[in-house]
Design goal:
The chain has 218 residues and is an all-alpha fold. It has 2 domains: 55 residues, Arc Repressor Mutant, subunit A (Orthogonal Bundle), CATH 1.10.10; 131 residues, Tetracycline Repressor, domain 2 (Orthogonal Bundle), CATH 1.10.357.10. The longest helix is centred in the N-terminal third of the chain and has 29 residues. It starts with 5 loop residues before the first helix and ends in a 13-residue tail after the last helix.
Length: 218
């Protein structure tokens, strides 16, 4: 009798599970690109993924869990974009503006991404590079008196709240690309940056400003 390789069997099981989970995530991305997120059902997903309905429940307890997984996947891909961008900017408020613009511009170019990212961004995990970097930038700005009288904690909620709403509007195609600079200026004004300075910062960091601005949301 052939000896059963339990380790190999377990490895095959993990690979199979990872493959079916990836199928579900791929199906979700495809459907969300074509329809409103709330219009997609579990039946739609398993049909698109070509798996049994029980397979869905082997990976996710509910539809919201799958949506969160896809959103988290998208946010992680964006985590890799921001660190190089931050290294080119010495001023913490410039970095806040650039990060906000990156999300907004990406959502404007890819509305399906914007819709989904807006759903997941409100629950940014503690380990997210986006959350860590924004928190660090706002604390540095607060220490330099740039946010007076707002605290870094409150500024974080203000920045993420506006960015999420703008991404949602972009995802619903209610925001034109021409409005991106105004949206970023609104974020800076909301955390206490004066109008003249906000305008100058946006002119510096947004693509098409006439300066050597970084390319956002590649």
């Amino acid at each position: 009798m052939a000896r059963i390789d339990l380790a190999r069997r377990a490895e095959i099981g993990r690979d199979r599970r990872a493959k079916t989970r990836a199928q579900l995530l791929k199906a979700a991305r495809a459907l969300y690109a074509r329809r409103a997120i709330e219009a997609v059902t579990i039946d739609d997903l398993v049909k698109e993924a070509r798996v049994a309905k029980g397979t869905f429940y082997a990976h996710f307890d509910r539809l919201a869990d799958l949506q969160a997984a896809v959103a988290d996947e998208l946010m992680q891909t964006f985590d890799g974009l921001l660190p190089p961008l931050r290294q080119t900017l010495a001023d913490p408020i410039d970095r806040v503006a650039a990060g906000s613009a990156a999300f907004i511009c990406k959502a404007l170019r890819d509305p399906a991404w914007g819709r989904l990212a807006a759903c997941g961004a409100s629950a940014l995990s503690a380990g997210s590079a986006v959350r860590t970097n924004l928190t660090e930038d706002l604390r540095e700005a607060a220490e330099k008196g740039r946010l007076h009288p707002m605290t870094a904690e409150l500024a974080f909620d203000v920045v993420t709240g506006i960015v999420i709403q703008v991404m949602r509007a972009a995802g619903q195609r209610r925001l034109s690309p021409a409005k991106a600079p105004a949206a970023v200026e609104a974020i800076l004004r909301a955390i206490g940056i004066a109008a003249r300075e906000s305008h100058a910062i946006v002119d510096r960091i947004l693509p098409g400003s006439g300066n050597d601005a970084p390319t956002f949301g590649a």
